[in-house]
Design a protein that fits this description.
Elements: E1 18-22, H1 27-43, E2 46-53, H2 65-82, E3 91-97, H3 101-111, E4 116-120, E5 126-127, E6 130-131, H4 134-139, E7 147-150, E8 164-169, H5 175-189, E9 193-200, H6 212-232, E10 239-246, H7 249-254, E11 262-267, H8 281-287, E12 294-297
Parallel strand pairs: 1-2, 1-4, 2-3, 4-7, 8-9, 8-11, 9-10, 11-12
Antiparallel strand pairs: 5-6, 7-12
């Protein structure tokens, strides 16, 4: 398949684009395929569906037997996954053999030249509409590419394309990478962009009520983001901004209007290593209440 290609936010608005779907033969895997197809259709991209299998460590079998059995089974599962995607989207399937599942997903996504990894949120550790398993959790704390997480049951929504991208932005270092990805993605797809500045009391531990100065600063911040996005996006792409307020992050996000086909884009924690993901506490709180796909963007993408 060729060598590894490093992807950047620039790949989101021109040229060939690949969406890598990390697949398991589970309902969560089907959710991931549905989201991967929606993103690919929206972004005019190809879907690469991949499965990671462990190496042959089974002493009870002759060398190679375990690989053959597992690879044959994976081939069947991947064929079923391919059948979930309509013919309007180019699809390829891939099997990788790695000791680490999360590490294998990242390596395979980079090998095929993907611009984003898609995974299903149904697994262990219940978290609102999501139920993040250990592999997805590892991806959200180490991947060098944006990772999109499909909420539980997404396969049943039947929304073919993204309706609107909501970009949640703060003032800390790293927000530029999120805005850059949002602008380039919306420019490529021609879908509306909503910029959100979040104000919540649990982000201001010393406060017991809404700080009017903080709200005013958030409004000005949203206006600056709006001006920047409008200046860079063509007039045919609608851009709006809002300030989400509430006693908690969950309440503030819940007050926003969400529709089928919406996607939320968030950045990584300031604890993230350069060009790596690290799901921050604010994004984790959002996951508890939003029932739309979430895309987490690495620092300094």
């Amino acid at each position: 398949m060729g060598g590894v290609r490093n992807r950047s936010a620039a790949d989101w608005n021109y040229g060939h684009m690949i969406v890598y779907v990390a697949y398991l033969a589970t309902d969560g895997g089907k959710d991931a395929v549905a989201l991967g197809a929606q993103l690919a259709r929206t972004l005019d991209a190809e879907v690469a569906i991949g499965m990671i299998v462990p190496p042959d460590n089974a002493a009870a079998m002759a060398p190679g037997d375990f690989d053959e059995v597992l690879t044959a089974q994976a081939d069947g599962w991947l064929s079923d996954a391919r059948d979930l995607i309509t013919d309007d989207i180019p699809v390829s399937t891939h099997i990788g053999v790695y000791d680490s599942i999360a590490g294998g997903i990242i390596a395979e996504a980079e090998r095929v030249g993907a611009s984003i990894i898609v995974a299903g949120g149904s697994g262990g550790g219940l978290l609102g509409p999501y139920s993040l398993g250990s592999v997805v959790n590892d991806l959200l704390h180490s991947a060098p590419l944006p990772v999109a997480i499909a909420p539980r049951g997404f396969r049943n929504q039947g929304v073919r394309t993204v309706r609107e991208v909501t970009c949640a932005l703060g003032t800390r270092y790293g927000a530029e990478a999120v805005l850059e990805t949002a602008i380039r993605g919306c420019q490529r797809a021609g879908v509306p962009l909503r910029l959100i500045s979040l104000i919540a009391l649990d982000l201001m531990p010393s406060k017991r009520r809404e700080d009017s100065n903080a709200v005013y600063a958030a409004e000005k911040h949203a206006e600056r983001l709006l001006d920047e996005a409008r200046g860079r996006l063509p007039g045919v792409v609608e851009v709006s901004s809002a300030v989400a307020t509430g006693p908690s992050v969950e309440d503030a996000v819940r007050r926003l209007d969400w529709q089928p086909g919406d996607v939320i884009l968030v950045g990584s924690s300031r604890l993230a290593a350069p060009r790596r993901l690290f799901l921050g506490s604010t994004a984790a709180k959002m996951l508890r209440v939003v029932a739309v796909p979430m895309i987490v963007v690495p620092r300094e993408i």
